[in-house]
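Sanity check

After download, print the first record. It should look like this:
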Amino acid sequence: MVNLSEIIWSWIGAFVGIAAVAFLHYTILAESDRVMIIGSFGASAVLIYGAIKSPLAQPRNLMGGHVLSAIIGVSAYKLLPDHMWLASSVAVATAIAVMHATKTLHPPGGATSLIAVIGSEKIHNLGYLYVIMPAGLGALTMLVVALLVNNIPKKRSYPEFWV
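Expected C-alpha cells:
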C-alpha cells in the first residue's frame, strides 16, 4: 500500500510539472501556432511523479520515448496523410519497436506518436518542430520538475538511473 506521504509528493510533482508545461502553453505561446502541452504528458506525469522507481519513468525513457516517438509519428503522418488508419497504426507500432530497440520504452511515447498523426491542424502544421516542441521541451520541463520535487523528501530518490 502506498503511504500518504508518497501520495502527497506524487500529487505535488504532477501538479507542478503539468502546471509548468501548461503555463508555458497558455501564456507564452497562447497567441502563436505553437503547442507545448499534449495529452501524453498526463501519462508521463503518472510515471515520473507517481512511479518514480519504474524503469519506464527514468530520464532516458522519458526523453527518448517522447522524442523518438514524435519523429516516428510525424514521419508516419507525412508518408501516409491520406490513410490515417494506416499512419496511426504504423506510428504506434513503430514507436514501440524503436523504443524497445533503443531501451527507451516509455508508454506515453506511443500516445505522442499517435497525437502526431491524429492531432489537429495546429499539430500537423508543426511538422518536425513537433519533435522539439512540444515533445522534447515539454518532456524536459517535466523532467526538471521531477528532479527537483522527487528529491525533496528523504525517502524518495529520482532517478534510479540515467542511462
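If your output differs, re-run the checksum step. Summary of this record's structure: Residues 4-149 form one domain.
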